[in-house]
């Protein structure tokens, strides 16, 4: 997933996890119950991609106004920014369990509001509710799982939350496909998210609060009782002692850097090592979004229609490829991140992303250049319904399908019975769309018939393959390792906000960019952003593989350079002697 995080977990940890779950099923109940928040996170960010196609059909304003489509998609991201910010405060004030219950209530409310929405603004309201839940879930679910899990298998259990995020995205595409022929289509797609929210709410009522939060609030006996359900009896007191020391250290850190957010941010940027860590952490988070990943996750069926696949159902079905590859890639990342290193995987991933974006740009350029011409006779075949802009054009013989579908023309293209032969440019109405389809022709409003369309699907798939194991997960790993201990909370928070904000900018502008630059120009623009991201990663981000937190801090204190060997544990140790 693009906005979450998958903590490191090696094969040994997964083996121990499997063994521990068999011995103590309560552990997996706890992790999966909290992990449903991750599933909802993935589902609600993925489902809109297919639902949007059918929302456009039901509401003409949405179909005609690009900004309205972008708002429906991106308001969940805007809500998530606020939800993540308030989620941190709720976690500390009222506990992890309470925060998850609040997130479930928001998920459920948002799902119901969207399902019964009588107008686009009501859908937007529901998306804001869902976004608030997504933001809280992204902050709280991994935290709850990590604090209520045995330390030896913590990484593996937190990783299940990451798998559930990408799994939720994948299932959202399957649900979209399942409801394409059902009356109410998008209402079912968006409304069904209320069911897992109710399930998680009921499960969480049966689970305890985080033992760490309870201990911090002085409820020591309650904390011990919960640890007794998780650890063997002989390990409980050792864990209590470790938790006591850890919380004491946390409070000392809070005393050193202050409790107000502004003070913490000021001190973080005032510390040399932390400031350089923030440059690296923010760099990878912003790069993760500006390679355009969420244009693919939020708009993939629309992009496939741009490539010449007119059918909503076919576009949604083909989008399953991208979502499935994203889920697989998140698993692959866990296997390779500790073997090949974070920096190397990101650089390889960025090179692959740039290549795929350039190829996609070429494919869409060729599709546009070879779009079918407009035939006067074919257009006249539909009576006095010829596109007004085409009929009044000074040189209509130069028109092709792309010009017919341009925003300034605002017409529809009815293909020839020979799909790639010159077709008709006619007024965009439901009646004419029906007349076109009645003659066994294909009706286009978003893209044109193209022999290059299948290449767009292939390169979108390749894009996900190179993105997911590298830039999809590594930025979150980097941000979990790179900050000095006393600034870890505020550093991670700043980086997460930069990620969500970049996500919002990209999702809020993608369709507008395609209108003004075309699909080819938009993907080329993202390729340019990716080149800048690659350069920034190369110069700013050190390798953290195999380094202890203190060693990473010393590398940053010295100043990282890609041309100086200073990122191995031994060399760092030598430097500090």
From TrEMBL:
Entry-linked InterPro entries: MFS_dom, MFS_sugar_transport-like, MFS_trans_sf, Myo-inositol_Transporter, Sugar/inositol_transpt, Sugar_transporter_CS
Domain Major facilitator superfamily (MFS) profile, chain residue ranges per copy: 30-545
Pfam families membership: Sugar_tr
Highest taxon above the source species: Eukaryota
Membrane topology qualifier: Multi-pass membrane protein
Compartments (UniProt record): Membrane
Transmembrane annotation, as ranges: 30-55, 67-91, 98-117, 123-145, 157-179, 185-207, 277-300, 315-337, 344-365, 452-478, 490-511, 523-541
Swiss-Prot/TrEMBL keywords: Membrane, Transmembrane, Transmembrane helix, Transport
Family in the record: Belongs to the major facilitator superfamily. Sugar transporter (TC 2.A.1.1) family. Belongs to the major facilitator superfamily. Phosphate:H(+) symporter (TC 2.A.1.9) family.
Name of the protein: Inositol transporter 4
Organism: Datura stramonium (Jimsonweed)
């Amino acid at each position: 997933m693009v906005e979450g995080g998958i903590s490191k977990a090696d094969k040994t940890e997964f083996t121990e996890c499997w063994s521990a779950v068999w011995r103590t099923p309560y552990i997996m109940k706890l992790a999966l119950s909290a992990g449903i928040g991750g599933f909802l996170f993935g589902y609600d960010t993925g489902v809109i991609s297919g639902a949007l196609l059918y929302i456009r059909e039901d509401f003409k304003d949405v179909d005609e106004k690009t900004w309205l489509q972008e708002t429906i998609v991106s308001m969940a991201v805007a809500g998530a920014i606020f939800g993540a910010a308030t989620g941190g405060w709720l976690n500390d004030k009222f506990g992890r369990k309470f925060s998850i219950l609040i997130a479930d209530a928001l998920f459920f409310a948002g799902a119901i509001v969207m399902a019964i929405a009588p107008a686009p603004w009501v859908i937007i309201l529901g998306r804001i509710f869902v976004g608030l839940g997504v933001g809280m879930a992204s902050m709280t679910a991994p935290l709850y799982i990590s604090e209520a899990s045995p330390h030896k298998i913590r990484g593996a259990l937190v990783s299940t939350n990451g798998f559930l995020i990408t799994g939720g995205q994948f299932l959202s595409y399957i649900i979209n496909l399942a409801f394409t022929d059902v009356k109410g289509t998008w209402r079912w797609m968006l409304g069904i998210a209320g069911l897992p929210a109710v399930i998680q709410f009921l499960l969480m009522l049966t689970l305890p609060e985080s033992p760490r939060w309870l201990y911090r609030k002085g409820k020591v006996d309650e904390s011990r009782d919960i640890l007794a359900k998780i650890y063997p009896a002989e390990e409980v007191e050792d864990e209590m002692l470790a938790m006591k020391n850890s919380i004491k250290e946390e409070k000392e850190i809070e005393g050193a850097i202050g409790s107000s957010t502004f003070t913490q941010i000021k001190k973080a940027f005032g510390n040399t090592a932390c400031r350089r860590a923030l440059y690296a952490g923010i760099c990878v988070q912003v790069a993760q979004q500006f390679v355009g990943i969420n244009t693919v996750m939020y708009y993939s069926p629309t992009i496939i229609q741009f490539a010449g696949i007119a059918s909503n159902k076919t576009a949604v079905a083909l989008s399953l490829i991208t979502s499935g590859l994203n889920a697989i890639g998140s698993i692959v990342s866990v296997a390779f991140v500790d073997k090949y290193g974070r920096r190397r995987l990101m650089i390889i991933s960025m090179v692959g992303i740039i290549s795929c974006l350039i190829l996609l740009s070429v494919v869409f350029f060729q599709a546009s250049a070879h779009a079918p011409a407009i035939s006067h006779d074919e257009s006249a075949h539909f009576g006095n319904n010829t596109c007004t802009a085409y009929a009044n054009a000074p040189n209509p013989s130069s028109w092709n399908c792309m010009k017919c579908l341009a925003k300034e023309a605002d017409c529809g293209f009815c293909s020839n019975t020979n799909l790639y032969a010159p077709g008709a440019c006619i007024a965009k109405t439901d009646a004419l769309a029906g007349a076109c389809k009645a003659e066994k022709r294909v009706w286009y409003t978003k893209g044109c018939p193209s022999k290059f369309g299948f290449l767009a699907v292939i390169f979108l798939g390749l894009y996900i393959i190179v993105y997911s194991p590298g830039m999809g997960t590594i930025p979150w790993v980097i941000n979990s390792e790179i900050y000095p201990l006393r600034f870890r909370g505020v550093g991670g928070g700043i980086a997460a906000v930069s990620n969500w904000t970049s996500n919002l900018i990209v999702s809020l502008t993608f369709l507008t960019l395609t209108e003004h630059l075309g699909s080819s120009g938009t993907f080329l623009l993202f390729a340019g952003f990716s080149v800048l991201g690659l350069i920034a990663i190369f110069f700013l981000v050190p390798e953290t593989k195999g380094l202890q937190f203190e060693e990473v801090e010393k590398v940053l204190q010295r100043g990282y350079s890609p041309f100086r060997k200073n990122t191995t544990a031994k060399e760092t140790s030598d430097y500090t002697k």
